[in-house]
Write a structure and sequence with these properties.
The chain is an alpha+beta fold and 203 residues long. It has helices at 3-10, 53-92, 103-114, 127-136, 160-179, 187-192, and strands at 15-18, 21-30, 36-41, 48-51, 116-118, 124-126, 140-144, 147-151, 157-159. A hairpin with a 2-residue loop joins strand 7 and strand 8 (147-151).
Length: 203
């Protein structure tokens, strides 16, 4: 057996990963023109490729490169899906505010609270983030002449038209969770039946 034949024979049994799956050199045959050909499996198929020993290293290099690229794309897509899932979970986590409501109502509440707005020349943020930020700064829901107002410690305020009925309900719900009964309401009852559940959600 010549040195060339020995080299060709040494490839038999070699495996590598292509983007379609693992490939393997099954055997070596002699073609009609007398040259050697490596019999290479095709992933998921009973067919095979015939590749010359002189070309096999380049083929393996290219296919492994494509496989590595495909793996990176797959991992990036998986990370993106994970991030999207986490973002959606965070978006829908309203601390129990929508517990027990229909999916349609929940989507509407999330849509309203996720709308980006600008308050008093400040940075653009979602309605939810504005409400939660204001509560941390000491804002409270108060009633003035039968109408609720979201009021700051310095008595500036936002009307229901500004943050919507759902926004006002959410602010009051969180306030009652944080500080107990607000406006004389039982926080336990309010937690069970937020205002938006017993009437049509505000805009």
């Amino acid at each position: 057996m010549s040195e060339t034949e020995n080299q060709a024979q040494s490839y038999v049994g070699r495996r590598w990963k292509s983007r379609d799956g693992e490939r393997k050199i099954l055997s070596i045959i002699t073609a009609q023109d007398g040259s050697d050909r490596l019999v290479v499996s095709k992933p998921g198929s009973n067919f095979f490729d015939l590749i010359s020993p002189e070309s096999i290293e380049k083929v393996i290099q290219v296919e492994e490169s494509w496989a590595a690229h495909a793996q990176k794309v797959k991992e990036a897509n998986n990370r993106h899906k994970t991030e999207q899932t986490a973002a959606k979970a965070e978006k829908y986590d309203l601390q129990g505010f929508t517990d027990g409501v229909s999916e349609v109502t929940k989507h509407r509440v999330v849509s309203v609270l996720s709308k980006e707005i600008r308050h008093n020349g400040g940075p653009i943020m979602t309605r939810r983030d504005l409400i939660e930020s204001c509560l941390k700064d000491g804002w409270r829901v108060k009633v003035d002449r039968g109408r609720r107002q979201f009021t700051s410690p310095t008595d500036s305020y936002l009307k229901e038209q500004s943050i919507t009925k759902i926004g006002m309900d959410y602010a009051q719900y969180l306030e009652e969770r944080m500080h107990g009964s607000g406006n004389g309401n039982d926080p336990k009852e309010s937690s069970k039946q937020p205002r938006h559940r017993t009437s049509s959600p505000g805009r």
